[in-house]
Recover the amino acids of this structure.
């Protein structure tokens, strides 16, 4: 038989396991570090900002929403999973390829949905397609940094007039009665800041440097992750 002190330790362990979940404590919390919790907080905040961006784009571009769909249903499709988000109605691409396709003047379909499917998929990629992070999990600081630059480029491209009508493909910021509405810029700014800060945290954790040379690449193209 095991020594008495081993039985005592085993009994204490059983009590701890049975009490998990009480007062908001879970077994999984034991395997989380401060960095893990920071990553999860950034992930959750970024996802909420992406939801806000989706709603605002539909509000400014209501004609993009199909007659048989609701914004709530579209949000459910976009945020129900943590993968690359490929949708038959958007074509074969995912992530930045889908973002490029949705920003093509000849694109046919729900431009808001397919653009956001690309953006959300890209952010999911930068978080390694996970929503929970533990002590053994690591992220790639370059992917976080590149995703931040892609958000910058997307914000810029949304403002650019295209085609014969010389108008943006999707309406975002507006000027009404002399008042400039920069709410879209603020949303993008918050997401970019979150990704950049997390890239620095992860780079420090991984003891690896971020390649800043990519910033010099033409601002028109999205960076691969």
């Amino acid at each position: 038989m095991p020594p008495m002190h081993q039985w005592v330790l085993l009994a204490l362990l059983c009590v701890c396991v049975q009490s998990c979940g009480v007062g908001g404590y879970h077994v999984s919390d034991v395997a989380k570090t401060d960095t893990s919790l920071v990553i999860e907080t950034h992930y959750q905040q970024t996802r909420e900002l992406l939801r806000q961006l989706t709603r605002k784009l539909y509000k400014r571009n209501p004609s993009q929403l199909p007659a048989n769909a609701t914004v709530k249903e579209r949000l459910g499709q976009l945020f129900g999973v943590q993968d690359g988000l490929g949708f038959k109605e958007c074509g074969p691409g995912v992530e930045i390829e889908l973002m490029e396709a949705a920003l093509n003047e000849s694109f046919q379909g729900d431009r808001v949905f397919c653009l956001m499917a690309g953006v959300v998929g890209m952010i999911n990629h930068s978080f390694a397609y996970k929503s929970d992070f533990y002590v053994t999990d690591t992220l790639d600081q370059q992917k976080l940094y590149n995703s931040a630059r892609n958000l910058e480029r997307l914000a810029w491209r949304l403002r650019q007039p295209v085609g014969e009508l010389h108008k943006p493909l999707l309406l975002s910021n507006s000027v009404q009665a002399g008042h400039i509405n920069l709410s879209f810029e603020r949303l993008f700014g918050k997401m970019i800041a979150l990704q950049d800060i997390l890239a620095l945290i992860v780079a420090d954790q991984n003891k690896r440097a971020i390649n800043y040379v990519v910033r010099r690449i033409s601002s028109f193209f999205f960076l691969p992750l």
About this structure: Strands lie at 174-176, 179-181. The longest helix spans residues 34-60. The radius of gyration is 22 Å. The chain has one domain: 30-216.
